[in-house]
Design goal:
This protein has 425 residues and is of the alpha+beta class. It is built from 13 helices and 23 strands. The protein folds into 2 domains: 3-18 and 229-424, Enolpyruvate transferase domain (UDP-n-acetylglucosamine1-carboxyvinyl-transferase, Chain), CATH 3.65.10.10; 22-226, Alpha-beta prism (UDP-n-acetylglucosamine1-carboxyvinyl-transferase, Chain). Helices cover 30% and strands 24% of the residues.
């Protein structure tokens, strides 16, 4: 257990370089069991979720070598397909081994995954898709999968699940024939996973759309791949600069569509935002105001499947809105428990009206004051850190290790940008 002690009122300013996308790195790590050859992944964030995935791989007999943010893995010495129960409980990404282990090695035994408690997070989509590829699935205290009549299929997902799409896509790379996934997720991290798989010899088309076609191949090879920058990470640091009156340059070749989607939300809240081919610049050193809809109507930010605003940015955006002049509605459609953390913002002085489990109205600017809080999940934890950075006085954030699952060295990297933040174990 650890806590963060934050003295508010210090601008977050300077130049920030984001690390690799957590939600791309986790399925890429699982994908390494699809081949006996080495796979080198660069720009991998050294966060707790990644470290647990590496423990799972090592426990299976995969060779793991870590050099800074470069990870090299080789599954030639794989000695089993049963995942460690305790490790599964520590990371949501453990479910991503279902498809690649079964496709390459004939079966897998997994245990219910861990992860944030932000609402029901079903795994039905994963197993329904794998069954259509010819995988037998038995569920008791574990998930037991066995390759049966393994072949490509036309699969219509009942929801555009990101991890479900990744799991099915990895399995289908080795399924004889053609697999077509309808209602597929098209988030940037799914596209990045597909790029890695294609480097390994897969034949995947339609990345970035909701219709993905995969022609199965007999085997995959090793590859080298750079994990794309994490848009949730750089969006979170941009938010910290905005609410603390800082000026931040985000140095990265960010995908234009991704920058537009996140930038549009910041601009709706009134935060100055500039982008060129090599960087994004955010300024919070002047008052900003919510931009009303036509007729001075209260605007709305709502999340949804890509290319809608990402759910993982909702908590952070709400904190930004507490410092903007005007009112704005946030509509969280994906997870029914995502908004529960706003009670802690209200205790800091935020002017927020919860409408129901999915909607809140935020009116600003509000003078926040420091307090003691506990991290409920990764993204809410980051949002509370940002709120503490702009609050008056000292804040203490308990269970900071939860934030470590998604953000590498959060205290050190914020301190390098001017924040006054310390960690106690």
């Amino acid at each position: 257990m650890s806590r963060l002690i934050i003295q508010g009122g210090h601008p977050v300013s300077g130049t920030f370089t984001p690390l690799g996308n957590k939600n791309a790195a986790l399925p890429m790590l699982a994908a390494t069991v699809l081949t006996d050859q080495p796979v080198e992944l660069r720009n991998v964030p050294q966060i707790d979720d990644v470290l647990v995935m590496l423990e799972l791989l090592a426990d299976l007999g995969v060779s793991v070598a870590v050099d800074g943010h470069t990870v090299t893995l080789c599954a030639q010495g794989l000695r089993g397909t049963r995942l460690n129960r305790d490790l599964c409980r520590r990371v949501r990404g453990s479910i991503l081994f279902a498809g690649p282990l079964t496709a390459r090695h004939g079966g897998a035994t997994l245990y219910p995954p861990g992860g944030d408690v932000i609402g029901r997070r079903r795994v039905d989509t994963h197993f329904d898709g794998l069954r259509q590829l010819g995988v037998q699935v038995r569920v008791d205290q574990a998930y037991r999968l066995k390759r049966h009549r393994f072949a490509g299929a036309e699969i219509l997902l009942d929801e555009a699940s990101v991890t479900g799409t990744g799991n099915i896509m990895m399995a289908a790379t080795l399924a004889p024939g053609r697999t077509t996934i309808y209602n597929a997720a098209c988030e940037p991290h799914i596209q990045d996973l597909g790029l890695l798989l294609n480097k390994m010899g897969a034949r995947i088309r339609g990345l970035g759309t909701n219709r993905i076609e995969i022609d199965g191949v007999e085997s995959l090879s090793g590859a080298r791949h750079d994990v794309q920058p994490d848009h949730i990470e750089w969006g979170s640091f941009a938010a910290a600069a905005a609410v603390t009156g800082g000026r931040l340059k985000i140095r990265s070749k960010v995908d234009p569509l991704t920058a537009h989607i996140i930038g549009r939300a910041f601009e709706r809240i009134g935060v100055p935002w500039k982008r060129n081919a090599a960087s994004i610049q955010v300024r919070g050193d002047a008052p900003f105001a919510v931009r009303s809809d036509l007729g001075l109507a209260i605007p709305k930010i709502e999340d949804g499947p890509w290319p809608a605003f990402p759910s993982d940015m909702m908590s952070v955006a709400i904190v930004v809105a507490t410092q903007a002049e005007g009112s704005i509605l946030f509509f969280e459609k994906m997870f029914e428990s995502r908004m529960h953390f706003v009670d802690q913002l209200i205790s800091m002085g935020a002017r927020i009206v919860p409408c129901d489990p999915h909607r809140v109205v935020v009116t600003g600017p509000a003078g926040l004051h420091g307090t003691s809080m506990a991290t409920p999940d990764i993204r809410a934890g980051m949002a509370l850190i940002i709120a503490a950075l702009c609050a008056k006085g000292e804040s203490v954030i308990e269970r900071a290790e939860i934030v470590d699952r998604g953000y590498e060295s959060i205290d050190k990297r914020l301190r390098a940008l001017g924040a006054v933040i310390e960690r106690e174990q």
